[in-house]
Specification:
Helix content is 59%, strand content 4%. It has helices at 5-11, 21-29, 53-79, 83-110, 120-131, 134-162, 166-187, 194-202; strands at residues 42-46, 49-52. Strands 1-2 form a two-stranded antiparallel ribbon. The longest helix is centred in the middle third of the chain and has 29 residues, at 134-162. 43% of the residues are buried. It is mainly alpha-helical and 244 residues long. Residues 221-244 have a biased composition (Low complexity). InterPro entries: DUF4142. Residues 54-184 form the DUF4142 domain.
């Protein structure tokens, strides 16, 4: 099913919300006293190497991705009308459960505060899929997630190539394998509109910073864990890190 550029653009701004004070304060909660626009700026010296702003943002983005792609996978299991769509859902669930476990393991060691909610834009993606039915759900799942995975894929490679922190490198290795796996299973649904996907990947909408920033967690709130159903398959890698 092909989506026009206007329709595809509309999908990507569904759920945009007003910028909140919590979102504005989020960088400070991550340990940044004065937010900088320099991704290479070192914000902490850790036992596993220097941590830059880009490193910290990468860990947060991996966590936030799971907070919307995991429930999208759950929706695929119940709403998908074909086996390839349901299979994609299984991979989304298992892949992000593993990445989430890794994020929760390394974040305390790096002094990073993890969000408990996806960004408003990402929450909008889930709202779109929740409202969808039948073949429309299948098409939107395949195309929305294929675009977002295509956008993050080169970002993962850049972090892997530049980070000096061994924990961030391990997370990037795992994220690379997981994102490639998800791209592959989404394409196997046969529903990806590559013309529209390429346009969205190269011409993303210009949204306010608050729409693409995960809300800060409530002070003292426990970190939410993404836990797949008992007995579920694990088609993607499990966390690579051990207790350090």
């Amino acid at each position: 099913m092909r989506m026009s550029r206007n329709v595809a653009g509309t999908v990507f701004v569904v759920g945009s919300l007003t910028l909140t004070l919590a979102a504005l304060a989020y960088p400070a909660m991550l340990g940044v006293q004065n937010a900088s626009s320099s991704p290479s700026r070192i914000i902490a010296r850790t036992s596993t190497g220097p941590l830059t702003e880009a490193d910290r943002d990468f860990v947060v983005k991996v966590r936030a991705a799971g907070l919307w792609e995991f429930p999208s996978g759950e929706l695929a299991l119940t709403k998908g009308t074909t086996q390839p769509v349901r299979t994609a859902g299984e991979h989304l669930i298992s892949g992000h459960a593993a990445l989430d476990a890794e994020c929760r393991l390394i974040a305390p060691q790096l002094g990073i505060t993890l969000p408990n909610q996806a960004s408003p834009q990402q929450q909008g993606f889930v709202a779109t899929l929740t409202a969808d039915h039948g073949k429309q759900f299948d098409a939107d799942l395949a195309n929305i997630l294929r675009v977002t995975h295509g956008q993050i894929f080169p970002a993962v490679a850049k972090i892997r190539a530049t980070t000096e922190n061994s924990l961030v490198r391990e997370l990037a290795d795992q994220a690379n394998d997981t994102v490639l796996d998800h791209i592959s299973v989404l394409e196997k649904t046969g529903l990806v509109d590559f013309d529209s996907v390429l346009f969205q990947e190269t011409t993303p909408p210009k949204l306010p910073a608050g729409d693409v920033t995960p809300p800060a967690p409530q002070p003292g709130a426990p970190v939410v864990a993404l836990t797949p159903p008992a007995g579920s398959a694990s088609p993607t890698p499990t966390p690579s890190s051990t207790v350090r």
